[in-house]
Amino acid sequence: MDTDTLATCQTIHHPGHWSNATDHVALTYDERFLRRKVLVSAKGQRFLVDLSKTISLNQGDALELDTERLIEVKAAEEDLFEIAGGDLTRLAWHIGNRHTPCQIEAGRLLIQRNHVMHDMLEKLGATITEITAPFTPEGGAYGHGRTHGHSH
C-alpha cells in the first residue's frame, strides 16, 4: 500500500472535545477496533489511521488528519438481533456472561446476529427480531473500551 500520498490520522478526539468535522466514516462495531488501517470517508477520501496502540473508536469520536481536517466516526448499520420480552435483566446477564457486546436500551437489547445466542435467548423466553441498525454496545467494565475475556 502506498501510504506516502495518504493523509494520516494519529490523533483521536472524543465527543465534546472537537467540532466542525468536514466528513465522516461509517464503521461497524468490529471495524471500530483498530490500530493501523486505510479507511475511506463518505466523500471518498482515503486516509491512513496509524495509532500507537489498538483502540476502540466510538460513535461521535473524530479522527484528526495531518491535514488538520476532522473526520467524524459514525456507527455503521449492521445485522443485529433485537431482544425484547421476557426478563430483560436476566437476558442481559446471560449475554454479558458470554462476553457478548450488548447495546442496552429501554425495553430492548441489541446484539450482533449469532445463531448460538439466538437459540439460548429464545429458550430463556426472549422475543428476537432480526434488524439492521447502528450498533453501539455498552463499554467495558470501567465504562469505556472493550473487554477481552477474564484476563483484563
Name its key features.
disordered C terminus, six-stranded mixed beta sheet, Alpha-Beta Plaits, mainly beta, HSP40/DNAj peptide-binding domain, four-stranded antiparallel beta sheet, 43% strand
- pLDDT average, as an integer? 90
Number of domains: 2
Radius of gyration: 17 Å
Distance between the termini: 34 Å
CATH superfamily of the largest domain: Urease metallochaperone UreE, N-terminal domain
Counting DSSP E segments of at least 2 residues, the number of strands comes to 10
Helicity, as a percent range: 10-25%
How many helical elements? 2
What's the shape?
Answer: elongated
Could you name the CATH class of the largest domain? Mainly Beta
CATH topology (fold) name of the largest domain: HSP40/DNAj peptide-binding domain
Q: Would you summarize the structure shown here?
A:
The chain is mainly beta. It has helices spanning 88-97, 115-123; strands spanning 7-13, 23-27, 33-40, 46-56, 62-65, 70-75, 77-84, 103-105, 108-112, 127-134. The protein has two domains: 7-75, Sandwich (HSP40/DNAj peptide-binding domain), CATH 2.60.260.20; 78-134, Alpha-Beta Plaits.
Description:
It is a single chain. The chain is mainly β and 152 residues long. The chain folds into two domains: 7-75, Sandwich (HSP40/DNAj peptide-binding domain), CATH 2.60.260.20; 78-134, 2-Layer Sandwich (Alpha-Beta Plaits), CATH 3.30.70.790. The protein has helices spanning 88-97, 115-123, and strands at residues 7-13, 23-27, 33-40, 46-56, 62-65, 70-75, 77-84, 103-105, 108-112, 127-134. The strands form two sheets. A six-stranded mixed beta sheet has the order 2-6-5-1-4-3, with no helix packed on it. It has a four-stranded antiparallel beta sheet with strand order 8-9-7-10. It is elongated.
